[in-house]
Structure formats: structure tokens, C-alpha cells
Amino acid sequence: MSDLNKRTLSLKRTFNAPIELVWEAWTNSEHIVQWWGPKGMKTKVIEHNFKVHVT
């Protein structure tokens, strides 16, 4: 697990929201810090390297 290039994070969530809004929330780091953790938790994005992986 020490090789950062071999780490993968896969998440599956269902949201009752327009797909454009969900896409914006997941792909924009300014939005991620608002909802990633529980209310009151401060989140800091150090690096946001978003890539689409199609299988």
C-alpha cells in the first residue's frame, strides 16, 4: 500500500439531485470541502486529480 500509483478509491453513491449538480460537486474541489466530512469538520484539499475511468 505504500506505492501511491497502485492505490484506488472507488465510491458508489445515489443522489436525489440533477446529474449536473452532482457532477459539479464531485469534480470541483471548492465544493468537496463543503460536504466531504461531517458538519463542523474542516476539510482541506491538498491535491485534486480527478480522472474519468470508463470500464
TrEMBL record:
Superkingdom, taxonomy of origin: Bacteria
Residues in Activator of Hsp90 ATPase homologue 1/2-like C-terminal domain copies: 16-51
Family: Belongs to the AHA1 family.
Name of the protein this chain belongs to: Activator of Hsp90 ATPase homologue 1/2-like C-terminal domain-containing protein
Source organism per UniProt: Aquimarina litoralis
Organism phylogeny: Bacteria, Pseudomonadati, Bacteroidota, Flavobacteriia, Flavobacteriales
